[in-house]
Known about the structure:
Elements (H helix, E strand, L loop, with lengths): L13 E3 L5 E2 L5 E2 L1 H13 L3 E10 L2 E10 L4 E9 L2 E3 L9 H11 L2 E3 L43 E6 L11 E7 L2 E8 L7 H5 L7 H6 L6 H16 L5 H29 L3 H22 L8 E2 L2 E2 L5 H26 L2 H7 L7 H7 L3 H5 L7 H4 L20 H24 L17 E9 L2 E9 L5 E7 L2 H12 L7 H8 L3 H4 L2
Parallel strand pairs: 3-6, 7-8
Antiparallel strand pairs: 1-6, 2-14, 4-5, 5-6, 9-10, 10-11, 12-13, 14-15, 15-16
Helix pairs in contact: 5-6, 6-7, 6-13, 6-15, 7-8, 8-13, 14-15
Amino acid sequence: MAAPVPATPRVEVLETWNGVAVDVRDVPVLSVERFRAVVLEVLRAGGRLAALFGRPAGDRVRLVAVLADDPEGKLGLLSTDVQDAYPALTPEAPSAQGFERELAEQLGIRPEGHPWLKPLRFEPPRRDAPDAFGRKDPRATLPGEYPFFRVEGEEVHEVAVGPVHAGIIEPGHFRFQCHGERVFHLEIVLGYQHRGVEAALRGGPDRRSLAIAESIAGDTAVGHGLAYVKAVEGLAGGAPTARAMALRGVGLELERMANHVGDLGMLANDVGFLPTASYCGALRADFLNVSAELCGSRFGRSLVVPGGVKADVGAAEARALAGRVRASWKRTRDAAALLFESPSARARFEGTGTVSRETALALGLVGPCARASGVDRDVRRDHAFGIYRFVHVPVTTGDTGDVHARALVRLLEAERSAEFVASQLENLPEGAARAPVGALSPHRLVVSLVEGWRGEIAHVASTDAAGRFDHYKVKDPSFHDWFGLAMALRDGQISDFPLCNKSFNLSYAGHDL
């Protein structure tokens, strides 16, 4: 008698990589119990939740989780189908809190046991509009009045700021529970505009898709634009040329430099240190102007396109731009040194707005805010893409998790970006700056990660039978980091809020999709 054939082990997580498309039908569909167990097992083993979203699937909602294994540079995909509710991940995995609140808000799926189940993006409940399945508005299951957290006690008082602000700023509401100057709790409420970005991208790609992606966060046009075109290239099976990869890297790092330098100037302004505030405010424009020389936009719009970049640059012009970057960075370094060498400025920075490494890991913080707390995480190295597969940019981390660490990480990151930009412009590969990209393949799914200047950007796109986007999910780095700002104020002084807020400098628009 022949020996029995061993059963093939069931694949519970589909392995993939940044920008590599898979057949959407190959994503494992697990039971709710097993889905939850696998996700928590991966998180306990050191993985992290890069994205969690839902999409209609018949009379149910299909939840899809994107898990990241940073040391191995891998991504994992798994899914499950739920009808009305499922056991929440958040009690054991705080990094899921925002994703699960979004699921409840958008699709009426209730994560049972979620300790903070309230709207992720503010909007008064509309009870007359059906949800995706023709049922009552899912917000009807949530409180009609926004359920602010309250601290009761003698001499405890509440301070509310926004959503309308005095300056040129997106709407956002901050509510402090205080005893004197001490902050017991800060609650942040965002999402007053509801721009409908993800819905607008579905059905594409079309002539407006790239412009929509670039406008997700106006100060991150290159980052979000690059995430979008990487997704398109992955779904179409195309690839940019070597020259295009170098120029894309230049654009992304110029965006990082301009924003980091601007933030250093604003941090200096918040503590009244005017020399660095004045210098960095002006020097930021130098890097924006180099972006304008490359693509016609100071904010890098229309630099990246599927297949490469929209405009090329000559060798002599590229070398001249490299010289400008080096000269501007030397002036920036000197201006920043004034700030970091000032005892009064350091006294305001050090020990202010501290976020521990443990808290940063639990909340899934990304970007400079995570690295300042000692979390060694950077997509350019961990999930290398484009030029970063061939040229390594050293990752900067801190260990104190305070305003000083977040400022210093920005300075050192900008310094390394300056060297990268100048070197690439001086040594651009020969060849074309753009390659043809064909039509998108049907029934494919891709996860596109980019290390924007605020941290990890994630775009997850899938196609239907006609090769059009049938689902498009965007995660701006601010999605994770806003809760980090709330924790930075805990037990701090309310007068430190402007400084802490600027040290994070998160995006309202990137959160309000």
